[in-house]
Amino acid sequence: MLDLAPLYHLVSLLPFECLQVGFMQQAMAALLLLAPMAATMGVQVVSFRMAFFSDAISHSAFAGVALGLLFAVDPHLAMPLFGILVGFGIMGVQRNSALSSDTIIGVFFSAVMAFGLAIVSRDNTVARDLQQFLYGDILTITETDIHWLIGLFLALTAFQIWGYNRLLYIGLNPVVAKAHRIMVGFWQYLFAGLLALVVMFSVWAVGVLLVTAMLIVPAATARNLARTAGGMFWWSILVSVTSAVAGLVISAQDWARTATGATVILVACGWFLMSALLAYARGDRKE
């Protein structure tokens, strides 16, 4: 098992007293891994107009956790597996149906929510246990979870290095991408699977209700600030990471005492407001 002590030591070097506590160091380490992943996938979600897709995946966490609790399966395992299944299902139907993407995603969104509610309605104890996943609680993350995050971070880094330009082609025109011998189906399914995993890990941090914001807000901010696709990529990471750090630190202050996930999103929204004002001042608005 990978020794996480050096990572915690680096976190403790940040000039904040609250980060000298063990569980806060674990939370910060998890956010520093999760924020860049959410940012990079968020850029592609915005570029491919897939915000509703990520919303459907995040709400499938509700059903995944409910299934795990009902059948005595670790929710941290049931949730990502069910999320990947839903992501693949949406992508498969979308690729083989004449219906619009929004319609297909809407059907899946409704189905997973209804399925989760139906399971919860059978057992009141399950409903109580679901609150942690509904609102998120990054402070309860474990070292095992962080090991999984490191593995996902490495996989996602390899995916972006290998597939970034291919995904740009597919986002612009799948037919042209196929003409350039890009395996469109393979990359779409791989993207859907990795997005599902990032969304599920994000649920631990900010909860089902705010997980889409963790993907969309930094990417939308980056679009206001950047002039190129590459610039949007790096701006999104900067916004996401600084929002995660500031959100965790602010939420730990005695004068705040707010939910960490909600505070992270509020800081990101502050970034977006500043970027929108800057874009307006530059004259970057629709005619």
Description:
The protein is mainly α and 287 residues long. It has one domain (16-282): Orthogonal Bundle (ABC transporter involved in vitamin B12 uptake, BtuC), CATH 1.10.3470.10. It is 79% helix and 0% strand. The protein contains 13 helices and no strands. It has helices spanning 5-12, 22-47, 51-70, 75-95, 101-120, 124-129, 131-135, 143-172, 174-179, 184-206, 211-225, 229-251, 260-282. α10 (184-206) crosses α11. The protein is globular, with a radius of gyration of 19 Å. 44% of the residues are buried. The model has no long low-confidence stretch (mean pLDDT 86).
Which secondary structure elements does this structure contain, and how are they paired or packed?
Layout: H1 5-12, H2 22-47, H3 51-70, H4 75-95, H5 101-120, H6 124-129, H7 131-135, H8 143-172, H9 174-179, H10 184-206, H11 211-225, H12 229-251, H13 260-282
Helix pairs in contact: 1-2, 2-8, 2-10, 2-11, 2-12, 3-4, 3-5, 3-10, 3-11, 4-5, 4-10, 8-10, 10-11, 11-12, 11-13, 12-13
Keywords:
mainly alpha; ABC transporter involved in vitamin B12 uptake, BtuC; 79% helix
Task: Please state the oligomeric state of the protein chains shown.
Answer: single chain
Order of helices and strands: HHHHHHHHHHHHH
Overall outline: globular
CATH class: Mainly Alpha
Q: Helical amount among residues, as a percent range?
A: over 70%
What's the N-to-C terminus distance?
A: 56 Å
Could you report the average pLDDT, rounded to the nearest whole number? 86
